[in-house]
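Researcher: We are triaging several targets before committing to wet-lab work. For this one, the compound of interest is pyridoxal-5'-phosphate. I'm pasting the protein sequence and the ligand SMILES. What I need is the predicted three-dimensional arrangement of the protein with the ligand bound, expressed as structure tokens, so it can go straight into our comparison scripts without reformatting.
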Amino acid sequence: MFDVNEIRKDFPMLQGKTMNGHPLAYLDNSATTLKPRQVIEAVNHFYCDITANAHRGDYELSQKVDQLYEETRKIIARMLNCDPLEVAYTSGTTYGVNQVAWGYVRTHLKKGDVILITEAEHASNVLPWFRLADECGFKIEYIPLNEEGRLTIENFRKALHEGVRFVAVAEIGNVLGYRAPVKEMCRLAHEIGARMLVDGAQSVPHGHTDVKDMDCDFLCFSAHKMCGPSGMGVMYGKSELLKETEPLCLGGGSNARFFSCGDVILKESPYKFESGTQNIEGIMGMGAAASYLMDIGFDNIAAHERELRDYLVRQLEKLDNVILYNPNGDSGIVTFNVKGIFSQDAAGYLASQGIAVRSGNHCAKILVDFLKTDDTIRSSLYFYNTKEDVDALVEAVRTCTIENCIGIFF
Ligand SMILES: Cc1ncc(COP(=O)(O)O)c(C=O)c1O
């Protein structure tokens, strides 16, 4: 049974923490998430009990680390419904997308081929493609968003043509929180022989992910957005495609042999992508985070977020000083502005009332043209948030006036 009050007991950051004299309402979960003690303990376990390098030692401690290192791969594979050998550790979504761009797309597309993205993508799913376009002569085209800012299957159909060889989109956008129809998109992309990467940074932590069912070619996400440690993430790739993907980074751990003549024999995937000592404690923490989320149940997580989100939207709609940008969003992301107040000033006032949200363009710098505003306030919910958090936000938004914002500096 899902009981948010029981769940909150797992999070040290939710034990009576205050911000500016108010109970902390942490509503910045799209930026990063809080960590439960299960994750903290897994990281501590590595530091306190089993510190050793992975895949490099012949003593018990190191073998224990090897075992946990591979165990996490199995846990993640269970979460994604894939083979553990299709799970490559990365430092996060950003690295994963760059790895796919440089290691697969660069070598599989030719000059003039088209990479399709949207104007709603995070910088991490735009800039790697811009660089490739610049260096290799690929073309970037945008799938038009509908009037609400959504990526619809109709618009995707219109944007697809024989020149499109690669598609890279976020399953859930980090500003408007809409869900893209990725399964249907993969099917259509494959029909014309194109490959597709799904940026799962905002979706994997919040609901079921089944890469087999979705049939995506690559999927990247970050552990820190799913209760895990920072600097840790995953690049999933279909095994046959990982074989054809060159590692972005070379060094110890990724090679089987190298010779003075310069020849290098790389290890098989996913090990060829894991050069250098990896973020071992991050891997253990990510494994604990994934197990923790699966124990709670992704259906429960999604349902709780949905309920809170609907409640938040209903409450914000009652206020006449609010501009809401995504009243019909599909996730815990609710984006708005307070009329006549610069978003950062408003966020500063909200912080003075104990509310943590994000303001600005949220790294989606092309979307500002669509939204017709440079800055918004983004509140983002997770399964440990409560109605009280939402009430605190709504009350702070209600009292957010220019007068109240004056003199607030952080
Ligand atoms: C949709 C999306 N993609 C990619 C990223 C980048 O993630 P990271 O900074 O963990 O690499 C983010 C982070 O906010 C995101 O929201």
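Researcher: Any quick observations?
Model: Residues 40-295 form a domain with the Aspartate Aminotransferase; domain 2 fold (CATH 3.40.640.10).
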